[in-house]
Each structure stands twice: as structure tokens, then as C-alpha cells.
Design goal:
The complex is a heterodimer of chains A (113) and B (114). Chain A is mainly β and 113 residues long. Helices cover 0% and strands 51% of the residues of chain A. Chain B is built from no helices and ten strands. The chains are: A mainly beta (113), B mainly beta (114). At the A-B interface, β5, β6, β10 and β11 of A face β4, β5 and β9 of B.
Chain lengths: 113, 114
């Protein structure tokens, strides 16, 4: 069965610094990969997704992620974070044979001034 | 347009009672999902409805949990004989069609079982 690992439960960072949130998944079969964000007191919303093609995916709010098949990773990056990026970030995977999203346990990004 | 709505937003119940949680998906969305979000556990898939197909119930944790979707729209998640470990935020999401179509999440129902 698919599984997703987000090794960092919390990532503190200062404003305008770069950030990388790590995500690894278990299977090497063809997958779809997603990053969702949950701002404080709001519902989850899609940040970006990888379906096929270019391994570098750009999302909303200046975030991007790179699909690395050999390392089964889909790390999320932003070159310069803002206070408003403070939120919980969830990585999710679905293989092409199911309609289920398997989510990681989330990474809380805390941006300090 | 209107997003996914869920009711109630908060529910406190006593151990052993039954609860019903409601989800109104975005109009026209054929796929509907229920997840459970527990502290430190991420989102756990519970059940998935797609059109008129039989639902995928593979994530339901026990036979105390059930869900239905009436008329291809509104869905109700029922938990019978609630236990304290059922305390969590229950999230509903809908999408136009199946994965990898984007899922749109509701605000959730926070359930506390005393």
C-alpha cells in the first residue's frame, strides 16, 4: 500500500529565507503527487500537483515542487517565505489504479519576522 | 460559487451516542470523499463516492462507521456508539471527477466524544 512520509513535523524559518519541506512516498509505480496547504482556521486547498511531464511543478503563492522518481520524493520549495506562508502543509500521493489520496502527517511551517 | 459545506462545525457528544455529520459538496461534483484528521496523524481516508458506483469503504475503521450519499449530492457520515478515540476533525471533499482532479475541502466538523 502507498504511504507518504513527511519527516519534518515542524519547520521554523525567518521571513525572506528559503524553505524546503520534504516528502517521500513509498511506491515507484506511476503516481500522482500533490501538496495541499491548510492555513490557520481554514480548509485545505491545493497548492500544486504533479501528473506527468516536467518534473518541476509550479504552484500558487510562489511555491514549486520537484518530482524525483529515483528518490521517490516530491519536495516543496519556496525561495523566500512570507509571514502569511505560516500554515500546515500536507503531501499526498495517489497511484494511477485508485481514486484515494494518501496523505502524510503534515509539516507545520512557522515563519518568524 | 459556493464551496463544500459541512455541518455541524462542532459536535460534543457522550461516549456511546450516535452522531451524524453532513456534507454538501460543490454542485456538479461527482466525487465525494470523507477523511478524518487526528492530532499528529495527518488525514486518514475513510470513504469515497463516485457517481452511481458502489462506494469505496476501505478506509472505514470499524463497522460503527457508515456513510451514504443521497441523490448523488449530500452525504452523511454516521458514527454509532461513539468512542473517545473517534474524537477528531472529519473533513469532506468533493471533486468534479475522480483523482487526479483537484479535491475541494470543506471546513470540517470537529467531534469531541466525552
Amino acid at each position: 500500500a502507498q504511504s507518504v512520509t513527511q519527516l519534518d513535523s515542524q519547520v521554523p524559518v525567518f521571513e525572506e529565507a528559503p524553505v524546503e519541506l520534504r516528502c517521500n512516498y513509498s511506491s515507484s509505480v506511476s503516481v500522482y503527487l500533490f501538496w495541499y496547504v491548510q492555513y490557520p482556521n481554514q480548509g485545505l486547498q491545493l497548492l500544486l500537483k504533479y501528473l506527468s511531464g516536467s518534473t518541476l511543478v509550479k504552484g500558487i503563492n510562489g511555491f514549486e515542487a520537484e518530482f524525483n522518481k529515483s528518490q521517490t520524493s516530491f519536495h516543496l520549495r519556496k525561495p523566500s517565505v512570507h509571514i502569511s506562508d505560516t500554515a500546515e502543509y500536507f503531501c499526498a500521493v495517489s497511484d494511477r489504479n485508485t481514486d484515494k489520496l494518501i496523505f502524510g502527517t503534515g509539516t507545520r511551517l512557522q515563519v518568524f519576522p | 460559487g459556493a464551496g463544500v459545506s459541512q455541518s455541524p462545525s462542532n459536535k460534543v457528544t457522550e461516549k456511546g451516542k450516535d452522531v451524524e455529520l453532513r456534507c454538501d459538496p460543490i454542485s456538479g461534483h461527482t466525487a465525494l470523499y470523507w477523511y478524518r484528521q487526528s492530532l499528529g496523524q495527518g488525514l486518514e481516508f475513510l470513504i469515497y463516492f463516485q457517481g452511481n458506483s458502489a462506494p469505496d469503504k476501505s478506509g472505514l475503521p470499524s463497522d460503527r462507521f457508515s456513510a451514504e450519499r443521497t441523490g448523488g449530492s449530500v452525504s452523511t457520515l454516521t458514527i454509532q456508539r461513539t468512542q473517545q478515540e473517534d474524537s477528531a476533525v472529519y473533513l469532506c471533499a468533493s471533486s468534479l471527477v475522480r483523482v487526479p482532479e483537484t479535491q475541494y475541502f470543506g471546513p470540517g466538523t470537529r467531534l469531541l466524544v466525552l
